[in-house]
Amino acid sequence: MAELSCLPTPSLVVDLNKVTQNCERMLQKCQELGVKLRPHTKTHKTLQAGEISTGNRKHGLVVSTIAEAKYFINGGFTDIIFAQPPSLNKVEVCTALVESISKFHMLIDNVQHLQMLEDTKLANGKQWSVFLDLDCGYGRTGAKWDSIKTFDLARLIHQSESVDLAGLYVHEGNSYNQTSTGDVTKLSDMTATRLLEFSDKLEKEGIDCPVKSMGSTPSCSLPTEIMSRITEFHPGNYVFYDLQQYYIGSCTLDDIACTVIARVIGHYPDRGHMVMDCGWTALDNQSQMSKCVTGHGCIVGEPNLRIDSMTQELGKISAINGKLDYEKYPIGTILRIYPWHACATASLHEVYHILLDGAIVDQWRPVKWWSA
Amino acid sequence: MAELSCLPTPSLVVDLNKVTQNCERMLQKCQELGVKLRPHTKTHKTLQAGEISTGNRKHGLVVSTIAEAKYFINGGFTDIIFAQPPSLNKVEVCTALVESISKFHMLIDNVQHLQMLEDTKLANGKQWSVFLDLDCGYGRTGAKWDSIKTFDLARLIHQSESVDLAGLYVHEGNSYNQTSTGDVTKLSDMTATRLLEFSDKLEKEGIDCPVKSMGSTPSCSLPTEIMSRITEFHPGNYVFYDLQQYYIGSCTLDDIACTVIARVIGHYPDRGHMVMDCGWTALDNQSQMSKCVTGHGCIVGEPNLRIDSMTQELGKISAINGKLDYEKYPIGTILRIYPWHACATASLHEVYHILLDGAIVDQWRPVKWWSA
pTM for the whole thing? Predict the structure, then answer.
């Protein structure tokens, strides 16, 4: 047990009560809708939050890197989707992962991917389990929901002897570009409708498609009626939430479970600002995109402070209205900052300092890098 | 020895010949001007590049974090400036560093900092060695060069029995905002003139100021005549250089010593793009600021490809002119990308894969995080 004020700066602090509450709410929401929750681990990348987010079942995750896949498998988790279309070298790495747990799923959207899987044999005649990555309008990866080619690819997967079609996977990342909860729900409805339209078509042709998965934190935080026809959600950011989600309308400011702490290290009254010992290496690698009046983040309990700019290890802070009261923030003052994008901020830290009821009680160490 | 094509993706690759050439050129430039070179380590954060950049003398560095300070001290380096105004907790950490090597310098710009140092006694009556952080127009940290208060602070440092004034330190970070080499040299001249004006004033009052240090990669890459009156330069980025420096005019494209490698993992001809297995966790946390026609970076040897956007682990690539030729880039194709800001990109990696004459010959492991 330590005081927050004893931590070195910059540090990432995670509020355990808030993580638990965010996870419980999402589990409950899914239960009410009759939808399975398969949390994405890319935001927190820790076994601890993995357990909390799966309701301690340690079953059913999405991962974004091979490093995450290995880490969660070694941590005892099963039923994992590696949510990135693979190149051959990654298919080869995945053979060991597929063979090590009962359910490890690949995501593919191209006949070249299917060919790679067919050409890469698994031990004991095991089949590859595959989700078809479906693009319902986001336009990043994924085969287009309304294309005949996509339907043909699904049929090829279905017909393949070495590959099993586990389901359809949609990431509606375009939900992040919405500026009102109404726009988010409209987008969710469109995504779900397109996903269901495609799966209905498959099922009519006798192609079984047991899992229909969609997910992004905005859409799953504000689920719509039609989304109850989807079989599973796979959001990830909601474990921490962040300012971006607050501005979209996915959460309240108080739901944000991670903050970066920093100290005031300089006063510059001739220029109207002060400087903290936290820059873009620790706070945010996307703060230029921040829409906050409080700049590159939001300092907890200090609505009149704005983080104007950041360099590698320093951040400039000024007053939004009136003059900055330097006496209120002597050199050494600790500031707690809500980040714009928690996925980006958390990815910059080796350690999360776990806050419980006002004290630092633990450290979580996320899995880092890509290939492990 | 390994082939580049055997590396997992994403990975950071550092060309050793280019690092050596960039370092030798800067050393030679300084020698010609009669200026000492005190390289900043914040970009590379490795003992290996520390050695090369100091001409193997392992003497005279600037560091941006306590972690870097400890790492380079443990690696046998001496004469190090911790280039961030400290809060009291960092002063306390620094006492051990000051006592461990002959020259470890603090950077201060406020009478509160001076007071902290005076209140924190060193063993054996050792004095704190201090650089006064001078703002010559950048406006981040630093006491203003033309303020009477700054002069008073210099006098207080000079008079203090527990603190020694080692010199003046200016970081002209505003050189990064210039868009032509002419603008950079104008800014360098202004910075140097202001620094010399202040130091002349001090010396007239009998306040000795042995070191006059300025530095940023744009200004030190294009040094002007008046800069030969400065006693030392402290640039850092030049060890790697990057697209930002290329656009400013500090280097050629071919001088850029670090690239991120990625593989093509998806083809989307209906949307005109392909996707690689590299997003903002590996390439760049500042790519939104990129001014390149080639988008969020520049793919080596592929002037017609543009990195349109990035998410956490994925990047979208399209053709600048005409249609993307998918047959030229089958899934699995390796792409090498010059980053926009090498300091940001390198800070995202645990390992640098060292390329020498076409083969991977070594791995360098930069010091990570902040407090060690």
Answer: 0.97
